[in-house]
Amino acid sequence: MDEPELVMQTELIAAPSAAAVPRTPAIRLTLRSPLFRGATVALFLSGLATSAAAPLIASFLVTELGASLSVAGLFYLTNLTAPVAGYLIGARSDRSGRRLGLFRWCAFAGFVGWIGFAFSTQLWMPFVIGALVLGFAGAAASQLFAAIHDELAAKPDRGNDGVVTIVRMALTAGWVFGPVCGAFFAAQAGLRALLTATALVTLAQILPLGLLREKRTVPVAVTSPHAAAGKRHGRPALRTMLPLLAFTALYVCVYAGESVKYAYLPIYMHQDLKLDPALSGAIIGIQPLVELLLMPLAIIVGRRAGMMRMMVLAAGFGVAANVCFAFTGTAVGLFAGQILMGGVWGAFAALGIIVAQRLLPSAVATASAIFLSSTALSSALGGLTGGLGVAVIGLPAVFLVPAAFALIAVVGLAVMARRQEGHPREGTAGRDM
Predict the structure, then answer these.
(1) Which end of the chain is less congested by CB atoms within 10 angstroms, N or C?
(2) Beta-carbon neighbour count of residue 325 at 10 Å?
(3) 113 - beta bridge partners?
(4) CB–CB of 333/195 below 8 Å?
(5) What is the pTM assigned to this prediction?
(6) Residues linked to residue 245 through DSSP beta bridges, in sequence order
(7) Which of 298, 416, 296, 292 is nearest to 358 (CA)?
(8) 348: closest CA among 402, 294, 275, 385?
(9) Per-residue pLDDT of the chain (433 residues; tens, 9 = 90+)
(10) Residue 153's closest CA among 356, 309, 358, 383?
């Protein structure tokens, strides 16, 4: 069978009539699949490990290795290698189809990286490890999402998007509990012990999937001959990647506000507003709670109103949230801003990976890796512009910088949504976007 014939057969598999597609509750689909169950637990462990260590890396560099505050801040620039590593892993995955094997190797790289961190004796060592090892470790999650996509595409069901949301919620839940657990563990056992525990938990994410292997089936990711024509030597051509790259760039604009907020909102609450520490903690903590609560709602509304439209609305929430931070000057206003930010990430966390995969259906592992690793770019963008902004316009006006980035995302996502409405994609790729 030549390639066009294979693609046409795939199109018949991937796009059954609406009447023939069952609707199974997402929780049931998740529980009855070893892959979905294992991925849910694995991503919770991944989020738990990473978020436990990430806020304390600068403290480790300063207290254990003698770095200055300015040098410690430069460590986060090592994250800029993550998109490159993610693309390389994603492209390899799309050529070989071995999602779970690459996931295990990436998780093992994370173990090696964090162990190396824990036993570092020279300041240069964490920088090299962060740039060359942990960048590949970050691609583990994208491989799981690609494997989930493959299995869902082989068994069409109207509850499939809900499965992705449940798995993504597990990753978010790990990020909710991780910082609390990490701070407590570090206070009791020290920073090097925390990094060692982070390495062990990172390795433990392999265990829920056991020896599970990919099912060898007819490929289902490519849904049209045009998509197949856009691949060269097993890699997607640049023109086929443009919608994904545009969407990811707009996501970076939205996410850049997070690094600005976490850097300067606590300082603003403490130095300018003189808020009680417990109240400040409640303001910071309300966002992830709202995010978790809204993720299931986001998938329901996204399927009915269109996922890209939901992204436009969520980016608009980001504009409003940062305006609240900049102008209200009260605890109530900051609570409102954080609740709005919960709406932003409730939508993007639930729907972002789905939209990214549908924008590049011929290479879902590459799409997943590019989208998920882009947070490193957004952190760098937010850190750079936030630092310049606070030096020029000060607090709280600096929050107008991420508001402007979010406004750019609103306009860009609205243009993408309008174009998709005028040019719907084949199969399921455009139906819900």
Answers:
(1) N
(2) 29
(3) none
(4) no
(5) 0.77
(6) none
(7) 416
(8) 294
(9) 333 333 323 333 344 555 567 778 888 888 888 999 999 999 999 989 988 888 788 788 888 998 886 677 677 778 788 888 888 898 888 888 888 999 999 999 999 999 999 999 999 999 999 889 988 888 888 899 889 988 888 888 888 888 888 898 898 888 888 888 888 888 889 999 999 999 999 999 999 988 888 765 444 444 444 444 455 445 667 788 899 999 999 999 999 888 888 778 888 888 889 888 888 878 887 888 899 899 989 988 988 889 999 999 999 999 999 999 999 999 999 999 999 999 999 999 889 989 998 999 888 888 888 898 888 788 778 878 888 888 889 889 999 999 999 999 999 999 999 987 766 543 344 445 5
(10) 358
Judge residue 22's burial from the number of C-beta atoms within 10 Å of its C-beta, 0-12 exposed, 13-18 middle, 19 or more buried.
Answer: exposed
| b/e map 380-396, b = 16+ CB within 10 Å | bbbbebbbebbeeeebb
Determine which helix (DSSP H) or strand (DSSP E) holds 231, and give its type and residue range.
Answer: strand 231-232
The two tokens of residue 202 are: 């990172």
Which residues neighbour 325 within 8 Å (Cβ) at sequence distance 6 or greater? Answer: 261, 265, 268, 333, 334, 337, 396, 399
Locus of tokens 């982070």: 198
Q: How far apart are CA 100 and CA 77, in angstroms?
A: 29
Question: Residue 180, Cβ neighbours under 10 Å: how many?
Answer: 12
The closest of 207, 280, 273, 282 to 41, measured between CA atoms, is 207
Using the Cα atoms of residue 399, residue 170, residue 77 and residue 197 in order, give the sign of their dihedral: positive
At 185, list the tokens.
């563990």
d(C-alpha 182, C-alpha 170), whole Å: 18
Helices and strands (DSSP H and E) totals, the chain: 20, 2
Could you give the angle at the alpha carbon of 80 between the alpha carbons of 362 and 115, nearest 5°?
Answer: 100
User: CB under 8 Å to 301, separation ≥6 — which residues?
Assistant: 310
Which of 311, 334, 178, 299 lies closest to 255, judged by CA? 311
| C-alpha span between 420 and 267 (Å, rounded) | 42
- Whether the CB-CB separation of 362 and 239 falls below 8 Å is answered with no
**Token duo for residue 76:** 């986060």
Residue 263: CA atoms inside 13 Å, Cβ hemisphere, count?
24
| 236 strand-pairing partners | 231
